[in-house]
Amino acid sequence: MSAATPFAILLVALAGAGLVALLEQAVAGARLAPAAIGAAAARRLREPLTLPASYDGWLYHGAPLLLLLAAVAALATVPWTPGFRGIDLDSGAILFAAALAYVTPAVFMAGWGSGHPLAVVGGFRFVALMLGFAMPLAMVITAVAAPAESLRPADIVAIQAGVPMALVQPYSLALWLPAVMAVALMPPFDTATASEELAGGAFARYTGPEAAIVALAQRVLVLAVSGMTAALFLGGWHGPLLPDALWMVLKTLAVAALLLWAGRRLPRLETDRLLILAWKVAIPGSIAAIVLAALTTLLFYR
C-alpha cells in the first residue's frame, strides 16, 4: 500500500457517495440534479446542532463518526483494479466483514445515546437483526473464497477471469444480497430507521454536521457493499474491451442501482419475520452454501 492510498480511498468514498445519491434520485424517478444534492448537503451543514433533552454525550456524538469510519474501512478493502487494491491483505475479505461489524455498535450508540424511546427501539432492532445476518455474511465470504483458496479479495477476483462466481454460486449471491442490504441500512431491512414506524429511529435526533456525516456514511456503506459484491460475484475488473477500472465502476453502480431499486419495491416485513428469515433460512442456507462451495471447488477448481 502506497502513501497515497488513504487519500485515494477517501476520494473514492466522496465521489462514490455522490454517485449513489444520484442513483437514489434516478431510482425514485426524480430528475437527476447534482446541484440539488450539493445544496441539500450545504443546508444540512448550516443547520444548528440540537441536543436531545436526555442523552449520553459520548455515545451520541461518537456514533456518526464510528459509522463513517466503519463504512470507509469496509470500502478500503474493495479491490478496484490490479493496480489499486486498497488495503490489500491476505485476509482482506474477513477485514471487510469485520469493518461492517462496527456498524452495529454505531447504530446502537446513536439510538441509546439520544435517549429518545423510538431511537432506542431502533438501536435494539438493528442489534437483533445483525445478530442474525452477520453470520451469513461471513459464511458466504468463506464459500466464495473456497475456489480461490484465499481470503484476499484480489485473488477471488482473479479466479473469476473465466466465469463469475454469480454463475458458479448463485445460491451464495441470493444469501449475500439481503445480508448486505441489512447492514447498509437499506429498505426493506432498515428496521433501525424506518420512517413509517419510528420517525427516523436511531438517527432521528441528529441535525447539522452530524446528520450530514450519517447521510454520507450510509451512502459510503452502499458503495462499499456494492463494490465488494462486484468483486466477489461479478468478476470485479474482468471484462472485454473496456479498461479494468471502468468495468469495476460499471459493475459497482449496477449493483448499487439494483439494491436501491429492490429496496423501494420489496415489501417491508415485520421485525420478527426478518429474524425468522435470518435464523431459519439465511444461517442454515449459508452452511449449505459452504458445503456446496467445497464440492464445487473439488470438482471444478482442482
Task: For this entry, give a set of tags.
302 residues; mainly alpha
Explained architecture:
By secondary structure, the protein is an all-alpha fold. The protein has 13 helices and no strands. The protein has helices at 5-27, 34-46, 57-76, 92-101, 103-114, 117-145, 153-158, 165-168, 170-183, 195-198, 208-233, 244-265, 271-300. Helix 2 (34-46) crosses helix 11, helix 3 packs antiparallel against helix 5 (103-114) and helix 6 (117-145) packs parallel to helix 13. It starts with a helix and ends with a helix. The mean pLDDT is 87.
Distance between the termini: 31 Å
Number of helices: 13
Strand element count:
0
Oligomer description: single chain
Question: In percent, how helical is the residue content?
Answer: over 70%
Supply the helix-strand structural class: mainly alpha
pLDDT below 50 for ≥5 consecutive residues: which ranges? none
The overall pLDDT average reads 87
Molecular shape: globular
H-E string: HHHHHHHHHHHHH
Beta content comes to under 5%
Q: Please compute the radius of gyration using only Cα atoms.
A: 19 Å
Brief summary:
This protein is an all-alpha fold.
Show the helix and strand layout.
Layout: H1 5-27, H2 34-46, H3 57-76, H4 92-101, H5 103-114, H6 117-145, H7 153-158, H8 165-168, H9 170-183, H10 195-198, H11 208-233, H12 244-265, H13 271-300
